[in-house]
Write a structure and sequence with these properties.
461 residues; alpha/beta; Nucleotidyltransferase, domain 5; 2 domains; seven-stranded mixed β-sheet; five-stranded mixed β-sheet; 14 helices; 22 strands; transferase; ATP:glycerol 3-phosphotransferase; FGGY_N; kinase activity; kinase
Length: 461
């Protein structure tokens, strides 16, 4: 084994940064983590601080590398939260405004104005993404309206700039901005004009792997290490599954869920994106997965674990929970949809609602998979995938095996694998579909979604 045999993976997520030191077999030698504060100054606003994000990276890396011979570390790979928008002063390099999180909805009026001009379909055609404030473009416009002449980017752009001094963005992250021509592989002048984003404010688009810069003195314990891979977090998890992704679809079950498969699809309910380098992928984003269970736990005054236990022992028995707390994302992309619980009777119990909450996650994932076309397996990862009940429901509704990764932290591992140039196999637990016809359940779910999507004036959706 080469003396410089370790790769440092830095997984910068919404609530924390995790660092893993990984060897070529995929084994985690050391780890470290640090929290990242999140602020909610107004309803629908979700903010972070760019310096606090950078500080969390340095703190997690310091903890991970404590006592490690730096000479053994040959490369650094990043996995980052996507779509969040960052702005900083070109002259000083200091943050010039808040980081607008991927969940932030304050730029909705900017999207509404473009929709009223009839430009939504053109935005979709060029970017591969539906016009929605989840993506970076409208948030970047909002920031530039308050900080003109600034540099902008996503979280990977900010970290690469802060650590190497180079203003760049990885191609997969660029494809999530809604400013990128996903087929041409470059910034779209037409989209820049629509959103009013000057090209001089944007980073250069770079591949996901290769020589992406050497970390400077601002990187502290990381100084002198080369960055050889950058991926969006969902893309990194997909990469970690290795050969298993052929013919399959990857589902990361978290606060929300990301459903991805390699290759483009025609259905407009899912997004066309870049997986890594110039590899196309289809993706559907679900806004509320684990968040649904957390909400119900708070609502009932119990723990999320208790919700899982209730769901495991109960039948929903005609109760459906549609978690459209902030509208519905893929495949509906309906920001007017409202959350609802339907099918309640005087005999309904908390256990039935708990079961309906867990089933809502699997139903939403199945909706996206249906839009993507036939698959022969579901590859599951993320925190909520630890729920055996959810995994079995998912297998039953999709009718294909669900293979749950036994290895945690796939986003970090995917970044390590790409940065290090190795692809060790990971192991799985498998859930096979049970005999039975679940079409009636799917039909009833779609009827519940239709009720959630009925506009408030009472006219049909």
């Amino acid at each position: 084994m080469d003396e410089r045999d370790l790769v440092l993976a830095i997984d910068q997520g919404t609530s924390a940064t995790k660092c893993l030191l990984v060897d070529p077999t995929g084994a985690v030698v050391r780890s470290g983590s640090a929290p990242v504060p999140i602020r909610y100054p107004r309803p629908g606003w979700v903010e972070q601080d760019a310096d606090e994000i950078l500080d969390s990276v340095l703190a997690a890396a310091t903890a991970c590398l404590e006592g490690v011979d730096r000479g053994r570390v040959r490369a650094v790979g990043f996995s980052t939260q996507r779509e969040s928008a960052v702005v900083w002063d070109k002259r000083t390099g200091r943050p010039a405004g808040p980081v607008l999180g991927w969940q932030d909805q304050r730029a909705q009026p900017i999207c509404d104005a473009l929709r009223e001009k009839g430009q939504a379909s053109r935005v979709r055609e060029i970017s591969g993404l539906p016009l929605d404030p989840m993506f970076s473009a409208a948030k970047l416009r909002w920031l530039l309206d308050r900080t003109p002449d600034a540099a902008v980017g996503t979280v990977d752009s900010w970290l690469l700039f802060a650590l190497t001094g180079s203003h760049q963005i990885e191609s997969g992250n660029a494809s999530r901005t809604q400013l990128f021509d996903v087929r041409a592989g470059a910034w779209s002048p037409e989209l820049l004009d629509m959103f009013g984003i000057p090209s001089t404010a944007l980073p250069a688009v770079t591949p996901s792997s290769g020589d992406l810069g050497v970390i400077g003195e601002r990187g502290g314990v990381l100084a002198g290490l080369p960055i050889t891979a950058v991926l969006g977090d969902s893309h990194a998890a997909l990469y970690a599954h290795g050969p298993q992704i052929d013919g399959g679809v990857k589902v990361t079950y978290g606060t929300g869920s990301s459903v991805m498969r390699l290759g483009a699809v025609d259905d407009t309910g899912v997004c066309l994106t870049v997986a890594w380098n110039d590899e196309p992928a289809a993706e559907g984003n679900i806004r509320s997965s684990g968040a649904t269970v957390a909400w119900l736990a708070d609502f009932l005054g119990v723990s999320a674990g208790q919700i899982g236990n209730l769901a495991a022992e109960a039948s929903s028995d005609g109760v459906f929970l549609v978690p459209a707390f902030g509208g519905l994302a893929a495949p509906w992309w309906d920001d007017t949809a409202v959350g609802l619980i339907s099918g309640l009777t005087l005999g309904s119990t908390p256990a039935q609602v708990a079961r309906a909450a867990v089933e809502s996650i699997a139903h939403q994932v199945t909706d996206v998979i249906d839009a993507m076309g036939a698959v022969d397996r579901v590859l599951a990862d993320g925190g909520a995938s630890a729920n055996d009940t959810l995994m079995q429901i998912q297998a039953d509704l999709t009718g294909v095996p669900v293979r749950r990764a036994r290895t945690a932290n796939l986003s970090a591992l995917g970044a390590a694998f790409l940065a290090g140039g190795f692809t060790p196999p990971i192991s799985y637990d498998e859930f096979r579909p049970q005999p039975g016809d679940f079409s009636a359940q799917r039909t009833a779910w779609r009827a519940a979604v239709a009720r959630a999507r009925t506009p408030r004036d009472g006219s049909p959706a």
